[in-house]
UniProtKB/TrEMBL annotation, chain A:
<dbReference type="InterPro" id="IPR011408">
    <property type="entry name" value="Aldehyde_DH"/>
</dbReference>
<dbReference type="Pfam" id="PF00171">
    <property type="entry name" value="Aldedh"/>
</dbReference>
<dbReference type="GO" id="GO:0016620">
    <property type="term" value="F:oxidoreductase activity, acting on the aldehyde or oxo group of donors, NAD or NADP as acceptor"/>
</dbReference>
<keyword id="KW-0560">Oxidoreductase</keyword>
<dbReference type="InterPro" id="IPR016163">
    <property type="entry name" value="Ald_DH_C"/>
</dbReference>
<dbReference type="InterPro" id="IPR015590">
    <property type="entry name" value="Aldehyde_DH_dom"/>
</dbReference>
<comment type="similarity">
    <text>Belongs to the aldehyde dehydrogenase family.</text>
</comment>
<feature type="domain" description="Aldehyde dehydrogenase">
    <location>
        <begin position="531"/>
        <end position="745"/>
    </location>
</feature>
<dbReference type="InterPro" id="IPR016162">
    <property type="entry name" value="Ald_DH_N"/>
</dbReference>
Automatic annotation (TrEMBL), chain B:
<keyword id="KW-0456">Lyase</keyword>
<comment type="pathway">
    <text>Carbohydrate degradation; 2-deoxy-D-ribose 1-phosphate degradation; D-glyceraldehyde 3-phosphate and acetaldehyde from 2-deoxy-alpha-D-ribose 1-phosphate: step 2/2.</text>
</comment>
<comment type="similarity">
    <text>Belongs to the DeoC/FbaB aldolase family. DeoC type 2 subfamily.</text>
</comment>
<dbReference type="Pfam" id="PF01791">
    <property type="entry name" value="DeoC"/>
</dbReference>
<dbReference type="GO" id="GO:0009264">
    <property type="term" value="P:deoxyribonucleotide catabolic process"/>
</dbReference>
<dbReference type="GO" id="GO:0004139">
    <property type="term" value="F:deoxyribose-phosphate aldolase activity"/>
</dbReference>
<dbReference type="GO" id="GO:0016052">
    <property type="term" value="P:carbohydrate catabolic process"/>
</dbReference>
<protein>
    <recommendedName>
        <fullName>Deoxyribose-phosphate aldolase</fullName>
        <ecNumber>4.1.2.4</ecNumber>
    </recommendedName>
</protein>
<dbReference type="InterPro" id="IPR011343">
    <property type="entry name" value="DeoC"/>
</dbReference>
């Protein structure tokens, strides 16, 4: 077209970013890559190809990580770890700073490689991915610098096995590598098989930036290579970002191995538009929500919920905007939507959309190039039960429905197994700030979407996984208590003696929903003193008792909305009433254990209740310094219903400490009392009854931990299971937890050694609420 | 909406049926919102999303020239100065460059002057088809007696201005007195008669983007042919977020009434790159129809110089210099 013709047509022309330098870099590397192990690339094998999805050209051939490769990488990481840790915070900060600078200096190379390999528009890799990568390394250089001062008593975990997805290859690498390295860990990382190239370019940068050999190891390959890493004996911590399906496999495979684990999984994030929203801005927000990275974003706003009265208006504005999207060559600087990462993924999207029979489908009227592309698509009028409203599509497909009231918006939004992110659009601060805390999501954006920053924790609830990346919280996933833990002793019940007691028969019942409950199975067990005297009888909880207790704990969920002040008062009151009966409890404990520690244990319990009460109105969230005009609030939200297998050896403290920690922050709990010494727990519910603890907030079961552990772990409506009981139960608990990806906490220490703060951390999830503002 | 070739105007281009206005719909006005942070994000990412290169860039820059209201609004304007500006409007770019681009005959969209300079400008532009626009109604503050402001419009139209850039009373917006704003605008529109009226909102003085959105709607309801950001005399003039707010209001008005209202960002647009960004914003938010001078104008004085240098660079491949282009 001539200039004068364009003067009339006013079309956008091609505006290609040059791939020359990036392709030249690939050629310099021989277009073949081995792994990066112990500071050097291994000999490459031509095991598989990495292709540019936009034109199907082969970019390089890659090596598939074998067991021997993974062994070598883990060995190198193990060997390097002690020296890297000893280098100290400042020493590591300098290396991370050099990485941040290196990313910036080679920013265009990284951006173009990312776009070539992944198919995302160059605008995104250039303006979003790579700057966030640099920011992440800068931020964590600071964390390394501050570690000794601000995280006293924390130590690195050791070797981290990290498996990352293909949607943000370099950014996910940064999210994994930067905090791990900052805290003194070494890593073995596997990039996704579709998108390994920027990780290999990063490996090259590590060598230049002075990262000591063995500190960063990159092994390429497919899922089976990932499994070799996550299941490897030499790995202390596993971090995975990817699908919920694979997350579940990893949870099961690593169960009982004692590895720390964080999972950042899928989502079906709601995008809620109220009638008073700036509708045009909300439409534009959707471009960043579901057409960002072709919708291949775990936290994509893929479920649109519009208030019914404005739905038609909103849909018509949205369709017009969709028609204006430009789909095409990802390297073109004038493109909104690039290529789908791989034909396999394209087929998955097609199958899901073609399989839908409900609602109305609108396909954007934009020019579609040939090849691995999928048009922006809107499906309206879906019922909540429709598979497309429930399942993650991971493509540029938006599914929409309507709601009538704020209450209904929350109800529809939370009607999902996932809980990664959510957006709320309203010009009314009352509406927005009321809705944000009620959404089951780890991240909530008010009048915005897909905002990320190194200072703001990111991660999910429910089946979107657990653990946070970014901020101080992210560091918890890469450190442990520096003190070598004392392992608690296991105790067995005393031998049976002669039956018969004094006076009237007294059978301790269980405590469910604020009421005493007989065991469903109708079985009881006798409890004996060391001397063989019968102390009483307790019911044996079965599956149904666990079910009833969990149900009662859910019914008491209003506890989460009570104020910290109220929860503190009640905890103090429990302490006060326990104190009034201190002698009786001390006597009971001594009778059960056959030891003389009862008085001290009662005192420790009272002190723990005071600590939990003290924290209840202080363990709050805080505002994070993110580079926007607005607030990013890292709020502590109660985890939900927590099942606890209490410590056997401490009949009272073993019950009171986790209970106090759980309920202080608004969670409710189902406590399996000390298996051999349950009678202090059954005495204790009388204290609860007299202390204004609402029914259902605390539920106490007695019986065999081995029976209850599996039921609690498998229960799909339990949010966390903590075990301070038989270490042999860990595997069963962690395997069962895979069902709904509940949080698990298996701690070998005697509860007396566990700081109250640790319970509070475990009893809360951080929700980051982004509130950009502007008059 | 059908378009017709104007019979009264001497403009060579197709023009839109004029917006007749409508009754003030306060429900609609009060529904208008504008979320500043979201609008700023959209504005900030636009440049990264839209890139126009090579021949396309040259064509788009030429298009920008065709939409410029070449302006002089200084106390020391003289007939000589205005005649020089008019000559520049007739030949905005060196003839050899236009010839190389195949765009011989390109002119600016209009020339914009104060009332006293209308006669000079009309004379200087005779036969060119370039309209003369006059700022009016006590420009820039708009605080002279109301009847004089109306009379000023009438005088300017009589003197030959075919476009009148009026300033609204900012206090009506700041005090939420939408009826007063509507009445004022309606009176100005009536006084313009056949001349097209551009409503200057002075957005830098309206405090919030929501006020900008609401004032835009009210002025369109009262019959504005164009809405315009600024006088160029406020401390903040045209910005992308303000523009996005106003053109979304234009879109909404078009959806609601079927009438297309034009948009004129003014003040602070001095770089060719900025001009491309504004054109991309218009194209993406409103469509190609709004890329013609009957619906889009730049109020600018120094923009043209930068575009001229870019165009010479496009033709020769070498970076250009100011002194190689005629001053206006």
């Amino acid at each position: 077209m001539s200039v004068s013709e364009i003067f009339d047509s006013m079309d956008y022309g091609p505006a290609p970013e040059s791939a020359g330098d990036a392709l030249a870099w690939l050629v310099d590397q021989g277009s073949r890559f081995g792994h990066f192990i112990d500071g050097a690339f291994t000999d490459p094998r031509d095991d598989f190809e990495s292709r540019n999805p936009a034109n199907d050209e082969v970019l390089a051939t890659l090596t598939k990580g074998t067991a021997a490769d993974v062994d070598a990488a883990v060995a190198a990481a193990c060997k390097a770890q002690p020296r890297w840790e000893k280098l100290g915070g400042h020493g590591r900060a300098k290396v991370l700073y050099a990485l941040a600078r290196g990313i910036q200096k080679h920013s265009r190379l990284f951006a173009v490689l990312e776009t070539l390999d992944n198919g995302k528009p160059i605008r995104e890799s250039r303006d979003i991915d790579v700057p966030l990568v640099a920011r992440h390394f800068y931020y964590h250089a600071g964390m390394a610098q501050l570690m000794e001062e601000e995280l006293p008593g924390r130590a690195p975990l050791g070797v981290c096995g990290q498996v990352i997805p293909w949607n943000f290859p370099l950014l996910m690498l940064a999210w994994k590598v930067a905090p791990a390295l900052a805290m003194g860990n070494t890593v073995v990382l596997k990039p996704a098989e579709y998108t390994s190239i920027t990780a290999l370019c990063f490996a090259d940068l590590c060598a230049q930036a002075g990262v000591p050999r063995g500190v960063v190891n990159i092994v390429t390959g497919h899922g089976d290579t990932g499994a070799l890493i996550t299941e490897h004996d030499g790995i202390d911590k596993v971090a995975f970002t990817g699908s919920t399906e694979v997350g579940r496999i990893i949870r099961r495979a690593t169960a009982g191995q004692g590895k720390a684990l964080t999972l950042e999984l899928g989502g079906k994030s709601p995008y809620i538009v109220f009638e008073d929203a700036d509708l045009d801005s909300a439409v534009e927000g959707l471009v960043d929500a579901i057409w960002f990275n072709q919708g291949q974003v775990c936290c994509a706003g893929s479920r649109l919920l519009v208030q019914e009265g404005v739905a038609d208006d909103f849909y018509s504005r949205l369709k017009r905007r969709m028609d204006g999207l430009r789909v095409g060559d990802p390297l073109d600087k004038c493109i909104d939507v690039g290529a789908i990462v791989d034909p396999v993924q394209l087929q998955t999207i097609r199958d899901m959309v073609d399989g839908n029979t409900e609602g109305e489908t609108y396909v954007a009227a934009c020019d579609m190039p040939e090849g691995c592309f999928y048009p922006p698509t809107l499906i309206t009028g879906l019922s909540p039960a429709a598979p497309l409203m429930q399942d993650e599509i991971f493509g540029p497909v938006l599914c929409a429905t309507t709601f009538r009231t704020p209450y209904e918006a929350v109800q529809v939004a939370n009607n999902t197994r996932y809980g990664l992110a959510a957006s709320v659009w309203s010009e009314n601060i009352n509406t927005a700030l009321d809705i944000a805390p009620r959404l089951a999501a780890g991240v909530v954006w008010v009048n915005g979407t897909n905002m990320f920053d190194a200072a703001a924790p990111f991660g999910g609830v429910r089946e979107s996984g657990f653990g946070r990346e970014g901020g101080w919280e992210g560091l918890m996933a890469y450190t442990r208590d520096a003190a070598k833990p004392k392992t608690r002793a296991q105790v067995a019940p005393h031998k049976a003696g002669k039956a018969g007691g004094d006076g009237i028969d007294r059978t301790a019942k269980m405590y469910v929903g604020g009421k005493q409950a007989r065991p469903d199975g109708g079985y009881s067990r006798r409890v004996w003193s060391k001397q063989g005297k019968m102390l009483g009888e307790v019911g044996l909880a079965n599956r149904k008792d666990v079910r009833n207790a969990v149900e009662a704990a859910h019914k008491a969920s209003g506890w989460a909305k009570s104020t910290g002040h109220l929860r503190a008062q009640i905890l103090y009151y429990v302490a006060e009433n326990l104190s009034a009966r201190a002698d009786e409890f001390a006597h009971r404990i001594d009778g059960l254990t056959g030891k003389r520690g009862g008085k001290a244990e009662v005192e420790a319990s009272i002190s723990t209740l005071f600590s939990a009460a003290a924290w209840a109105d202080k363990f709050s969230g805080e505002a994070r310094d993110v580079p926007i005009r607005g607030l990013a609030l890292a709020l502590r939200e109660p985890t939900g219903v927590i099942g606890v297998l209490c410590e056997d050896a401490a009949p009272l403290l073993g019950l009171v400490a986790p209970m106090a920690g759980a309920i202080a922050m608004g969670s409710t709990c189902v406590l399996a009392a000390s298996d051999p010494f349950p009678l202090a727990a059954t005495d204790f519910y009388q204290v609860l009854d007299t202390s204004d603890v609402p029914g259902g907030v605390v539920n106490i079961l007695t019986g065999a931990h081995g029976d209850m552990a599996g039921t609690l772990a498998d229960h799909l409506d339990v949010d966390a299971v903590w075990s301070f009981s038989d270490p042999g139960l860990a595997k069963r608990i962690e395997e069962g937890a895979a069902g709904n990806l509940k949080r698990t906490w298996i701690d070998p220490r005697p509860v007396g050694d566990i700081p109250v703060r640790a319970y509070l951390e475990a009893a809360t999830d951080v929700k980051t609420v982004w509130v950009p503002y502007g008059a | 909406m059908q378009t017709t070739t104007s019979e009264t105007s001497t403009l060579p281009q197709t023009v839109e049926v004029r917006n007749p206005g409508m009754a003030l719909d306060l429900d609609w006005v009060m529904r208008a919102t504008a979320n500043r942070s979201a609008i700023e994000r959209r504005a900030a990412t636009l440049g990264g999303r839209r890139s126009i290169k090579k021949d396309y860039q040259a064509a788009w820059l030429a298009r920008a020239i065709s939409c410029i209201d070449l302006t002089t609004l200084a106390g020391d304007d003289t007939p000589g100065r205005v005649r020089r500006l008019c000559a520049k409007a007739r030949q905005p770019v060196r003839a050899d460059i236009l010839e190389a681009l195949g765009l011989t005959g390109l002119t600016t969209g209009a020339v914009c002057v104060y009332h006293d300079m209308i006669g000079t400008a009309v004379e200087a532009l005779e036969g060119s088809g370039i309209p003369v626009a006059a700022v009016s109604t006590g420009f820039p503050a708009g605080l002279s007696p109301f009847h004089l402001r109306v009379a000023e419009i009438e005088e300017s139209v009589k003197a030959g201005a075919s476009e009148i850039d009026i300033v609204i009373s900012r206090r009506h917006v700041l005090m939420g007195n939408w009826q007063a704003l509507y009445d004022e605008m309606q009176a100005f529109r009536a006084a313009c008669g056949p001349a097209h009226v551009k409503a200057i909102l002075a957005t830098g003085e309206l405090g919030t983007l929501r006020n900008v959105a609401r004032a835009s709607l009210v002025c369109m309801m009262a019959g504005a042919d164009f809405i315009k950001t600024s006088t160029g005399k406020e401390s903040v003039n045209a910005t992308l977020p303000v523009s996005l707010t106003m053109i979304r209001a234009i879109r909404e008005f078009h959806d609601g009434t079927g009438h297309r209202v034009g948009y004129k960002p003014a003040g602070g647009i001095s770089k060719a790159k900025d001009a491309l960004l504004y054109l991309a914003l218009m194209k993406d938010e409103l469509g190609n129809r709004w890329l013609r001078p009957d619906l889009f104008r730049f109020g600018a004085s120094s923009l043209l110089g930068d575009i001229e240098r870019q165009l010479e660079h496009h033709v020769t491949g070498a970076y250009s210099a100011n002194h190689r282009h005629a001053i206006g």
